[in-house]
Amino acid sequence: MIRFDSVTKRYPDGTLAVDDLSFTAPTGKITVLVGPSGCGKTTSLRMINRLIEPTSGTIWIDDRDASQISATQLRRGIGYVIQHAGLFPHRTIVDNVATVPILLGTPKKQARMAALELMERVGLDPMFANRYPAQLSGGQQQRVGVARALASDPPVMLMDEPFSAVDPVVRAQLHEEFLRLQSDLGKTIIMVTHDIDEAVKLGDQIAVLQVGGHLAQLASPHELLTRPVNDFVADFVGRDRGYRSLSFEKSGSLPTRGEPTVELGSEVSAARALAIDDWILVANSDGKPLGWLCTSLAPAGAVREDMLFRGGTIAASDGTLRQALDATLSSPSGRGVIVTPDGVLIGTVTATEVVERITTNAGDARAEHSSSGSPAGATQ
Ligand SMILES: Nc1ncnc2c1ncn2[C@@H]1O[C@H](COP(=O)(O)OP(=O)(O)OP(=O)(O)O)[C@@H](O)[C@H]1O
C-alpha cells in the first residue's frame, strides 16, 4: 500500500505543483493518476521514489515513512518505467533488462538468464536479446522498459506515461499484455497518463488531478464515468462517458423479456405462429440459442439448421452492457439475446432499452452531481 498523507510540493520558484494530496494506492492494484498537462502527476509519482522530495506531508510505503528510508534502499523495491522506455543506448537488450539485478550483486550469467525469461513474459522474442535499443520498434522498447522495471521483482511499480510513445494499435496490444502480466504478478502499481481511456482500461482506481495538484476525485472507472463529482471531472472524462460506462455495467442488470423459442425439426408453420415481427429464436433442447429464423422467408416444412441466421452476437448476463448493446445491434431481429454464463437463454433486450439504461445512468449522475456541492470522495 502507498499512502499520500497531505503531501504538498512547492518548487523553489514558487510553483505549487501538488497541493495537500491525500489518497491510498492499495497493494496489488493499479492506481492511475490522470489530469491535464501540468496538474502535478509526474511530480506526485517521483515523490514516491524520492526523485523529488515533498515540501510537506508524508508518503507511506506500507507502514514506513518513505522519507525515513534511504533513497537507494527505497528504489530497490520500486520499479520505474518512463515514456520512451529510457533504455541505455549502448547496452544490449538483455543487459538493459539485467542492469539492476547485476548492480544488486546477482551473478551476470544468472541475471541474463532471468532477463531472457522476463523478455518472454513481456512478449519479446529472446532473439532480440543481443540487439541494441535503436534496433527495436517503439513498442518493443516499451516492453524492454517494463521487463527492466520488473527485473528486481519489486513489489511496487511506478509508470510514467509508459505506453504513450507508440501508435494506437501497438498501445492496445501493450495494454492487453500488461493486464495479463499484472493478473499474474499482482504488483502495487501507480501509473500516470493524460489519457482517460487508458486510465479507464487499466485502472482499478483512478485519481483525477486538477491543475495546482488538487485531487478532484478518486474512484473506480465505473464510478468516475457514471458519477463525476463536479464539472471539471465530467468534462475531463468526456461526453461519451455513458457509452464508455457500458463496459463496466453487467448486462445482467438489464430487464429482459421472455423470448419464445422453437427447436430444430419443428414445423415452420408452428414457428410462424410464435414469431414476433417475423423472427423466432431457435434453441436446442437445453435452451441454448442456435440462431434466428425469419419465418416469412422460411419454406414450409421442418426448421433446419441451414435456414438459421447465426450472425448476431450473444451476450452473457455476466458480460457488460456494451456487449449487450453489440448483441442488439448485430441481431437480425433487432432483439439482443442474453444468456446465462452457461449459454442458456434468459431473454432478449432491444437497443432502445440498453440506451434507456445509459440515459438513466447519465441522469442519476447529473442528479447526484447537482445535489453534492463538495467533491465528496475526493480523498480517503
Ligand atoms: N523543477 C521544477 N521547477 C519548477 N516548476 C516545476 C518543476 N517541475 C515541474 N514544475 C511545474 O509543476 C507543475 C506540475 O508539473 P508535473 O510535471 O508534475 O505535471 P504533469 O501533470 O506531470 O504534466 P504533464 O502531463 O505535462 O507531464 C507544472 O506547472 C510544472 O511546470
UniProtKB/TrEMBL annotation:
<dbReference type="InterPro" id="IPR003593">
    <property type="entry name" value="AAA+_ATPase"/>
</dbReference>
<dbReference type="InterPro" id="IPR017871">
    <property type="entry name" value="ABC_transporter-like_CS"/>
</dbReference>
<dbReference type="InterPro" id="IPR003439">
    <property type="entry name" value="ABC_transporter-like_ATP-bd"/>
</dbReference>
<dbReference type="GO" id="GO:0016887">
    <property type="term" value="F:ATP hydrolysis activity"/>
</dbReference>
<dbReference type="GO" id="GO:0005524">
    <property type="term" value="F:ATP binding"/>
</dbReference>
<dbReference type="InterPro" id="IPR027417">
    <property type="entry name" value="P-loop_NTPase"/>
</dbReference>
<keyword id="KW-0547">Nucleotide-binding</keyword>
<protein>
    <recommendedName>
        <fullName>ABC-type quaternary amine transporter</fullName>
        <ecNumber>7.6.2.9</ecNumber>
    </recommendedName>
</protein>
<dbReference type="Pfam" id="PF00005">
    <property type="entry name" value="ABC_tran"/>
</dbReference>
<dbReference type="GO" id="GO:0015418">
    <property type="term" value="F:ABC-type quaternary ammonium compound transporting activity"/>
</dbReference>
<comment type="similarity">
    <text>Belongs to the ABC transporter superfamily.</text>
</comment>
<feature type="domain" description="ABC transporter">
    <location>
        <begin position="2"/>
        <end position="237"/>
    </location>
</feature>
<keyword id="KW-0813">Transport</keyword>
<feature type="region of interest" description="Disordered">
    <location>
        <begin position="361"/>
        <end position="380"/>
    </location>
</feature>
<feature type="compositionally biased region" description="Polar residues">
    <location>
        <begin position="370"/>
        <end position="380"/>
    </location>
</feature>
<keyword id="KW-0067">ATP-binding</keyword>
